[in-house]
Give the backbone structure.
Amino acid sequence: MMDGDAIARLRAMCGGPRDGALLRVSIANALLAHNETAAAISELRCALQFDADYSAAWKLLGKTLAECGESAGAMDAYRNGIAAANKRGDKQAYKEMAVFLKRLQKPPV
């Protein structure tokens, strides 16, 4: 688990030459480890502004939104992630997000 100092060090790189989708997903993961869900979602959305085809960011965004009970947002994230994974040929991410999407689309029993 990352401590607050590690998150601060990662955030210090924002706006610099190393800023990008990977940095923002790293920050989001660190925030999620501290249960800072809203901030993590914000960082994931920022990561996707850097690279809209970053399927790992879409997958984590979908998972996080689903865990927050935001099914519609999660399904949208998974659909975008599936399209991104398909575009990049990332078959594993494509399959995983398709399964997660199907689960969310099932009516509750």
In short: The mean pLDDT is 94.
